[in-house]
């Protein structure tokens, strides 16, 4: 009967915060034993728990140094803001989510276990990644300072790939056809000819990107976002798969017959001053700058259900 009651309370505990679990177990002596059975999911600094008898029950730990040991059940490991030491031993094979802090910039050769699926680097990391990223990582995020060649180093397991501010390397033959969500940072401004695989559905370019795109964006893309300085002709350049299309502040090219009929959400930036009359009837939401100077009734089709103006 007691075991049955424990099971019920442990099940209830799954919906509680870690603090709530501790408070519940402290309500009476008979429940106190449950704190040794609860699994704790909230992020906590490892030094706060290293001497607890239920140390191994913690799933998400943060550390600012090389710990002597990790909880046996740890799945999420986050290194603190100032951590910048070579990791002394291979990390536990239970870890699925690994995050490095702002200042970390050390070699990772032979360190990251194959269990990791989500890998995020901090601002300072800028080391070669040859043979460093395990073949099971699905979500890979680089920090702002990373600016190294990635050719042959992004595993075919990756579906979500994010680059930081300073990345500006060629990505030709570098992005695997497993990637569905691809984000480039502010300074990326390289040719994308034969670079974007036809697996990508969500594609975002940073502010500095201003390269020709004709024939370079695959028909798989449904969400397409350009940054501040993009101002290239788009004739026959936007795939017919795109449903949401965002242009940055400097874009001021003709869109006449250049927006596919698949688009339902369309946004223009501050400099756009061309007529939007030829916007396809599929567009239900149109976002424009308050600086738009065309006569609205003559420049915007009546089929659009909602027009919004954003103010600088």
> What is the helix content?
under 10%
Based on CA atoms alone, the radius of gyration comes out at 25 Å
Shape: elongated
| N to C succession of SSEs | HHHEEEEEEEEEEEEEHE
Number of helices: 4
Give start-end ranges of low-pLDDT stretches.
none
Mean of pLDDT: 92
Largest sheet entry: 14 strands, parallel
State which percent range the strand residues make up: 15-25%
Whole-number count of domains:
3
Secondary structure elements and their pairing?
Elements: H1 2-13, H2 18-25, H3 29-32, E1 44-45, E2 60-63, E3 76-79, E4 97-99, E5 118-120, E6 139-141, E7 160-162, E8 181-183, E9 202-204, E10 223-225, E11 244-246, E12 265-267, E13 285-289, H4 296-299, E14 306-310
Parallel strand pairs: 1-2, 2-3, 3-4, 4-5, 5-6, 6-7, 7-8, 8-9, 9-10, 10-11, 11-12, 12-13, 13-14
Textual characterization of the structure:
The chain is mainly beta. The chain folds into three domains: 1-38; 41-200; 207-312, no CATH class. It contains four helices and 14 strands. The chain has helices at 2-13, 18-25, 29-32, 296-299; strands at residues 44-45, 60-63, 76-79, 97-99, 118-120, 139-141, 160-162, 181-183, 202-204, 223-225, 244-246, 265-267, 285-289, 306-310. A 14-stranded parallel sheet has the order 1-2-3-4-5-6-7-8-9-10-11-12-13-14, with no helix packed on it. The longest helix has 12 residues, at 2-13. It starts with a helix and ends with a strand. The mean pLDDT is 92.
